Amino acid sequence: MASILYLHGFLSSPSSLKANQTRAYLLQHFPDTTFICPELSNSPAELEAQLQALLKAHPDLLTGGLKVIGSSMGGYLATWLTEQYGGRAVLINPAVTPFELLKDYLGEHENPYTNKRFVLSEDDIGHIRGFYQPQLSHPECYKVLLQTGDETLDYRQAVEHYSGADVYIEEGGDHSFVNYEAHLDGIMAFLNSAKATQS
């Protein structure tokens, strides 16, 4: 049975709008596909172990090549996973260098979905930097959906970083990626097209 991994962004959760839209779409159109959407830790130091444990708990994720959808910070983590394990990834307004952006977010936060409070520290920024992939081994294995109206990230940074990938740029919109559900047919076509490249 095929499985798809969805990774949400910073201060988001498995109950975010895009995660719910993806879940509902797969249930209707790909009922035999398992949708795996973990609640990612608010502690960057725990993320790598959490992702490794997730793959160990769901070995079917790597059967035939990883298929992952990542939004914002989730796109950053999806890139790291794809470079480590091969496969195909669809990235929604991905964060390219979140360790730079999050320097302005040091201190206490509350996740609006889970109401969990946590503190983002300088050490956390270092852990986030550890996931950075300066070069993509197989850019053709990425589909990147960007909206120019993203108020959080400069979409042009992703255009440059994911050069050689299937990059789609839509005028307007915002960081949440407006009208995401209209792209789910294309997202699934990409994830299911050709055998995923193995690293």
From TrEMBL:
Signal peptide limits: none
Entries under PANTHER family matching the protein: ESTERASE YQIA, ESTERASE YQIA-RELATED
Protein name: Esterase YqiA
